[in-house]
Design a protein that fits this description.
Blueprint (H helix, E strand, L loop, with lengths): L1 H26 L2 H7 L5 H20 L2 E3 L2 E3 L4 H10 L1 H18 L4 H22 L5 H22 L3 H67 L10 E8 L7 E8 L2 E9 L3 H19 L5 H16 L1 H4 L3 E9 L4 E7 L5 E4 L4 E4 L18 E4 L5 E5 L1 H4 L10 H12 L4 H16 L8 E8 L8
Antiparallel strand pairs: 1-2, 3-12, 4-5, 5-6, 6-7, 7-10, 8-9, 8-11, 11-12
């Protein structure tokens, strides 16, 4: 008896192995993934009903004939079809399996036909109630319990009863073991497919969000570029060049020019942080600086006004956002330069006559740090051949592969070496030296620079 049970169990497990191979193939099919993704079609349900019905038929064909009854794994197809694909597939697979079992005959045919139909129906109802595949353990437990129910149904319906008892005694362990094992493996396959599909959906959602954000950043970058002067001024006697290179799609650096009468006012600024927050704060700062520049003459007054408005309008004193800014007014007739420096990197002034470089030091704290700040204004005269270089910390704090900073010393050397060139050539030379220094290192901060060179033919001094 024991040897017979083991032999029957092995035969059924072999049948399950073939079914599992078919399951692996069907789990990658379009009809199955449509069901898993929650978008079933009539066609996919019909095809899956046929497939799981065929699995039930194969289970019957490979079964073991004992006393006119067939010990098999025919319930497995409708069970999986119902649990994984819903009521319609479970019902269809169950009816196909039941019809075939009836055609085989035998005194247990009615009970087995009812059982295989109920396997698909109950499995489908469980799916319908939960709205999804119930999982590995619940499905396996259900398969085991259903086979026990199948045995009870056989005893209740099949006659003669003594023969039914013999069949149940012989079939119970192999059918419970084979159908339980088959469901366990099927469940692992289905859960793996579900997880893969969910991962794919998350990836697709992430890629879509990434594309949307990228498109938004491109629009933001275009808007931000529109904040920068569309045309660099070219007043008589002066050569000017400027550039701004954000580390990301958008950045927090900006420069600006506004000419009034015989005065050219210019600004370079660097907002704390990078990316979208810095870009938004940059836009606000630029608007405020322009608004404060119109009615006020002195640089200290303009910075005091801008600082007060930034603190009040942005809440920067509590948010931690601030902007360093250098603001100057250049008289185009006498070349006098009035400036105020709100915590910005000191611009470098190359003196053509002495070949020396001067620093235009800080005259006050960065804008937005606290209200009611005072700023000092200073004045100097530019001479023919002098070169003024304004820059942001993205240049001097750029690093190479050895974690060395480019630094002000290298910037001074670069400026001195190129001072005899045009403003644009000076700017290009500085950026080229910076690129050689950093090599393949990724740009970590926004880079902005502005060059003003007094042309030697200038004779506007009154």
């Amino acid at each position: 008896m024991a040897n017979s049970l083991i032999s029957d169990s092995l035969v059924l497990l072999q049948a399950v192995s073939v079914i599992i191979v078919a399951a692996l193939l069907i789990s990658r099919s379009r009809p199955f993934t449509e069901i898993i993704d929650g978008r079933p079609t009539a066609k996919s349900q019909l095809l899956l009903s046929i497939f799981f019905g065929a699995v039930s038929i194969y289970g019957s064909l490979i079964g073991i004939n004992f006393l006119g009854a067939i010990i098999s794994v025919r319930d497995l197809g409708p069970l999986v079809g119902g649990l994984a694909c819903g009521p319609m597939v479970g019902l269809g697979a169950g009816l196909i399996g039941a019809t075939f079992r009836l055609s085989e005959g035998g005194f247990t045919a009615p009970a087995c036909s009812i059982a295989v139909s109920l396997a698909g129906i109950i499995g489908g109802l469980i799916y319908w109630k939960r709205g999804r595949f119930p999982g590995i353990i619940p499905s396996t437990v259900f398969a085991v319990l259903f086979e026990l129910f199948h045995m009870l149904l056989t005893l209740a319906i099949s006659r003669p009863f003594d023969m039914a008892m013999d069949v149940v005694a012989q079939a119970s362990l192999p059918m419970v073991l084979a159908n339980g094992a088959g469901m366990l493996i099927f469940a692992f396959i289905i859960v793996n497919v579900i997880n893969e599909r969910e991962t794919m959906r998350e990836r697709d959602r992430y890629q879509l969000e990434l594309q949307i954000k990228k498109a938004e950043l491109i629009v933001a970058a275009d808007i931000q570029k529109s904040f920068l002067p569309g045309k660099i001024p070219s007043p008589e006697g002066f050569d000017i060049a400027a550039t701004s290179i954000p580390a990301k799609e958008v950045g927090g650096d900006f420069y600006d020019f506004f000419k009034k009468d015989d005065n050219l006012q210019f600004v370079i600024a660097d907002v704390s942080g990078k990316g979208v927050p810095a870009a938004l704060f940059m836009a606000l700062s630029r608007i405020i600086v322009r608004a404060c520049s119109a009615p006020l003459r002195g640089g200290f007054e303009r910075l005091r006004c801008a600082n007060q408005m930034i603190v009040e309008e942005s809440g920067s004193a509590t948010s931690g956002m601030f902007v360093t800014l250098f603001l100057a007014r250049l008289n185009l007739l006498d070349r006098s330069l009035n400036y105020a420096n709100a915590g910005h990197n000191p611009p470098l002034l190359f003196r053509a006559d002495s070949k020396s470089i001067e620093r235009m030091d800080v005259t006050g704290v960065a804008l937005g740090m606290m209200a009611d700040m005072e700023y000092e204004q200073r004045q100097m005269i530019l001479d023919p051949g002098d070169v003024l270089l304004l820059y942001t910390d993205g240049i001097v704090e750029a690093m190479n592969g050895k974690d060395e900073l480019f630094g002000e010393s290298r910037l001074r050397s670069s400026l001195a070496a190129a001072a005899g060139l045009s403003a644009q050539e000076i700017l290009d030379s500085v950026l080229r030296d910076l690129g050689i220094f950093t090599g393949d290192m990724e740009q970590s901060d926004d880079i902005t620079a502005l060059v003003i060179k007094v042309e030697r033919r200038c004779s506007n001094v009154v």
